[in-house]
Specification:
Elements lengths: L1 E8 L5 H4 L3 H8 L8 E7 L4 E7 L13 E2 L5 E9 L2 H11 L11 H12 L1 H7 L2 E9 L4 E6 L8 E5 L2 E5 L2 H4 L11 H10 L13 E2 L4 E5 L7 E4 L3 H10 L6 H19 L6 E4 L4 H13 L5 E7 L7 H11 L2 E7 L1 H5 L5 H5 L8 H12 L4 E3 L4 H5 L3 H14 L3 H12 L3 H8 L11 H10 L6 H9 L31 H11 L1 H15 L4 E3 L5 H9 L13 H8 L18 H6 L3 H7 L2 H7 L4 H13 L5 H16 L1
Parallel strand pairs: 13-14, 13-16, 14-15, 16-17
Antiparallel strand pairs: 1-3, 1-9, 2-3, 4-5, 5-6, 6-7, 7-11, 8-9, 8-10, 11-12
Length: 648
């Protein structure tokens, strides 16, 4: 795991300003957290291209793993971030093909990748490679720059023209070091941020700076300044193909095949020349990954869990029971509110642009804990998107067709009835309803449900369910919400039913732009590599072939994944309500974080900065403080933007 950055200059740009090698040094140093082990640079001032790389040594700890790396023919230079899990197989294939070198200098996956590109070309190599990655590739012959990103978007890459210079890199903080960078905030992107907690690809918080889409590569040159994008793998196409040609082997064979694929993926991702472990929350996804790891290991694997003293947020006791059953070397750390809140000042720098999924706090803490013992940690992310795990899938499956039969006026009447009772009153009422006491914040969830009762289509329903602010343009001064994959640029997804459509949309939006960003930045902030076995594209492709009847069974989510886990862990250790990986932001904002929040939400400050409508924000802040409503997510959105703005 590493970080890269660089820039390509136009000959029309003032060479005295941009063709100074010291700029690439400063840009690269901004990524030291992503690669603390070594730093490398490569440049060709005659063509105006500069590459920088910071290395976190994982495979091949020798100097032969140093980057940027030049191809055997000297045609290509690469700065690479990530892991190619099948690189030894690619190396063998290359040797046998007589097209590539056989005199290897070391055993790094970067050396394999650049040799494959040399022999087969970029697109063929990308289609053969199995892994997580983002990289910059310079073609010395054609004087062309390529940027590429892995299939599901595990690794990041930003890019854009600024003042006649094409800037690119793993994080915005590197691009910002270049003197031509214009930190002009994109108000339209703020509207997207308020809706989603994150800024969706391809947008960024800055004008004319973009994120490359997963499964894509682009090319740019002085003669072709407008980047041309190519898609080499499409999650939408995989979903459509899987639904058209489902697995027909029956439930038992499907479970065995998923188990086999997971074991293979875990085995590949356990290859490292440094200590390795896994995050273990005690939920189905992380428990399945840990169980597969332990089955593949002859010694106890290292597992890590963060615990909280607040009962509604603590899964540590469940994780400990699973670790004990599997025989892992388990480390848990119970965090006080003060320790958790001490992370908050680090967040704006960690995430480079506004990001407000509050589970970023425990994610950073568990990464920090793991880093004390290992350099690589596997995680269970993506199980929900692939195997129908989110509550919104179950609710849609159970209720949408029934709700859709009701006339819109009747639905609107039900919505008004729900919102005529305060969320706190609903919380009190549901305490006395059998089975409801185990759910948190029922009142707020009912209010959110009431807000989407009038939806006419499942797409409209989905957008409502995943929106934290339904009308962000009312909040952002001079902001207009641009199209995204959920609105104006929604994919066709032919053949998918309502729930499958939601799962596919989550796979191409929420997963790469929220979940994977959260994990990557938190872990890289402490120089820890994370790997996600569920995102082996062979597992993704198989998961979409698995019939929905093997994922959601009698209202129970992730049926097929549970059957795999039951091979290793007893049901009694697993069967319990789904719990999010969160912290009690609502309580903290009324207590120890109140003064901090009040400073950031000061009405005169909001007026002076000119980004938000202060009256709407102050109204919700006052309602939250009084306890009439729980506006924690809305307020956390605003607060994380304000804290980020303070860092600029």
């Amino acid at each position: 795991m590493c970080g890269f950055t660089g820039y390509l200059t136009s000959h029309s740009t003032s060479s005295a300003v941009v063709r100074d090698n010291s700029y690439i040094n400063v840009m690269t140093k901004a990524l030291v957290h992503r690669g603390p082990n070594s730093e490398g640079h490569w440049s060709d001032p005659n063509t105006g291209v500069y590459l920088g790389h910071r290395r976190l040594s994982i495979v091949d700890l020798s100097p032969e793993g140093h980057q940027p790396k030049i191809s055997p023919s000297q045609r290509y230079v690469i700065a690479f971030n990530g892991e190619i899990y099948n690189h030894l197989e690619l190396r063998n294939e290359l040797n046998q093909s007589q097209l590539g070198q056989t005199d290897w200098q070391g055993h790094s996956d970067t050396e394999t990748l650049i040799a494959c590109i040399d022999a087969w070309g970029l697109e063929i190599t990308l289609k053969k490679a199995l892994g997580m990655f983002a990289f910059a590739l310079w073609d010395c012959k054609d004087k062309r720059l390529f940027l590429a990103r892995d299939r599901l978007g595990e690794k990041p890459v930003y890019y854009g023209w600024q003042g006649g210079v094409f800037l690119f890199g793993s994080e915005l903080k590197a691009l910002k070091q270049h003197p031509n960078f214009k930190a002009e905030i994109n108000r339209d992107a703020i509207t997207l941020y308020l809706r989603h907690n994150y800024i969706p690809t391809p947008y960024s918080i800055y004008h004319n700076i973009f994120k490359l889409e997963p499964g894509c590569f682009l090319s740019v040159s002085e003669n072709q300044p407008e980047p041309i994008k190519h898609t080499y793998w499409s999650a939408c196409a995989v979903a459509e193909e899987g639904v058209r040609n489902p697995f027909i082997g029956g439930k038992e064979k499907a479970v065995d095949e998923l188990d086999r694929l997971l074991r293979n993926s875990v085995r590949e991702q356990m290859v490292a020349d440094v200590p390795l472990g896994a995050f273990l929350s005690g939920g189905i996804d992380s428990s399945t990954i840990v169980a597969s790891m332990q089955a593949e290991s002859s010694r106890p694997i290292k597992t890590f869990t963060i615990g909280f003293h607040e009962e509604g947020y603590n899964e540590a006791k469940h994780a400990a029971a699973i670790a004990k059953h599997l025989g892992t070397e388990h480390t848990e750390l119970y965090i006080t509110p003060e320790e958790a809140m001490s992370v908050i000042p680090k967040l704006p720098s960690l995430y480079c642009e506004p990001f407000s999924d509050s589970s970023q706090i425990p994610t950073f803490l568990v990464a920090q804990l793991a880093k004390q013992h290992v350099t690589v940690s596997l995680s269970g992310d993506a199980g929900d998107e692939l195997f129908c795990g989110y509550n919104r899938y179950q609710l849609t499956d159970k209720l949408w067709n029934k709700i859709n039969l009701l006339p819109i006026p009747l639905r609107e009447g039900i919505s008004k009835g729900i919102t005529s009772i305060s969320p706190q009153a609903w919380n009190n009422i549901t305490k006395y309803i059998p089975g409801m006491h185990k759910y948190n914040n029922v009142g707020d969830k009912l209010y959110k449900g009431a807000g989407v009762l009038g939806c006419k289509t499942v797409d409209e329903l989905y957008v409502g369910l995943v929106s934290n602010v339904s009308t962000p343009e009312e909040l952002v001064i001079y902001g207009a919400e641009p199209p995204t994959l959920l609105t104006g640029n929604a994919p066709v997804l032919s053949g998918l039913d309502e729930v499958q459509r939601m799962m596919a949309l989550d796979l191409i939006t929420y997963l790469p732009d929220d979940i994977l960003v959260k994990v990557d930045r938190a872990a890289m902030g402490v120089s820890l590599e994370t790997r996600v076995p569920f995102l082996n594209h062979k597992i993704v492709e198989f998961a979409w072939k698995v019939p929905q009847s093997m994922k959601l069974v009698n209202g129970q989510s992730k049926w097929i994944l549970r059957q795999v886990l039951y091979k290793y862990v007893p049901k009694k250790l697993i069967e319990r309500p789904k719990m999010g990986f969160g912290v009690p932001i609502d309580i903290w904002l009324r207590g120890p974080l109140r003064d901090w929040a009040e400073t950031l939400l000061d009405e005169s400050r909001l007026h002076r900065e000119g980004y938000f409508n202060p009256l709407l924000i102050r109204k919700k802040w006052e309602e939250h403080l009084s306890g009439r409503r729980n506006w924690q997510q809305f307020l956390w959105n605003i607060l994380m933007f304000q804290a980020w703005l303070d860092e600029q």
